[in-house]
Amino acid sequence: MDSQVQILIQSFDGKTIIKFVDNKITVNDLITQIKYNSKNTYITFNGKILNKNKCFLEQGIKDNDIVFLNSRIKGGVFPIIIAAMLAAAAFMVTLLILLEDLIVIFLKIIEIIPLIFQPQKFVNDLIFGISFGLKSIMSGMFSSIDSGSTPNKPADDPATIPKVCMSPSLFNLIFLIICPPLALFMDRGIQGMFLVIVCAILTVKLYYFPGLIFAALHIFC
Is residue 166 pLDDT above 70, yes or no? Predict the structure, then answer.
C-alpha cells in the first residue's frame, strides 16, 4: 500500500476520474482500465507526454497529482493548417473590401482638393447653395399660405433666379454688424418681415453669428 498513490485524471470529454496506481501499472494499462482507446489517447503531466510503457511512479507522479487525458487529433495537424488558411483567406477578403472603400474615399477627397485651393469658388458655391435652399423653403411656405389668393408667377420670373453676390457698402456693413435683423429689415422692408423674425431668432437664440450669416446671405446675395 505504501507504493500506491492516488491520481486525478482530467479527461478530454470533461470527466474527472480518481484512480490508485502503483509501480506495476503502466500508463497504457491505466488508459485501458478507464475504458479509453490507448491508440487515440495520451496522458500529460506538467505539459509533458508520459511514456505509455512506463509506470506513473517512474515518471515522477506523486500522491494527489493531476494528470490530463488527451485525445489525438484525427488527420494530424492538417485540419488545423486548413482552418488557419481559411481564416487567413477570409481576413484577406475583408481587408481588400476595406481597402476598396478607402480608395473610394481617397478619390472623393482628391475631387474636393481643387475647391479647397480655390476658396472664392468654394465660398460662392456654398453661398449659392444655402441661399437657394433657404429661398426655396421660404417660397414654398409662403406659397402654401397664400395659395388661391395670389396669381401664379411666370416660369421665367427674375425673382426666382438666384442672385449674384455684390460688394457691400460701408453703411450696410455697419448696420449688419451692429444689428443683423435691423439691417435685414432696412433692406427688405415690411415684405421681408418673416425673414427679419427668423434672423432675430437666430441672432438671439443661437448667439449672434447664425443671424449675422443669415442676414448677410439675404442682403448681399
Answer: no
Q: Is the same domain home to 95 and 177?
A: no
The one-letter amino acid code at 39 reads K
Question: CB–CB of 58/21 below 8 Å?
Answer: no
162 φ, ψ to 5°? Answer: -55, 135
Element (H, E) at 21: strand 16-21
Q: Are residues 82 and 148 in the same domain?
A: no
pLDDT at 159 > cutoff 60: no
The verdict on 54 and 79 lying in the same domain is no
Beta strand ranges found along 22-108 (DSSP E): 41-45, 48-49, 65-71
- And the C-alpha cell for 135? 429661398
State the pLDDT confidence band at 1, using cuts at 50, 70 and 90: very low
Output DSSP code: residue 189: G
Tell me phi and psi for residue 48, to 5 degrees. Answer: -115, 145
Parallel, antiparallel, or unpaired for β 5-11 and 65-71? parallel
Which residues constitute the domain of residue 97? 74-117
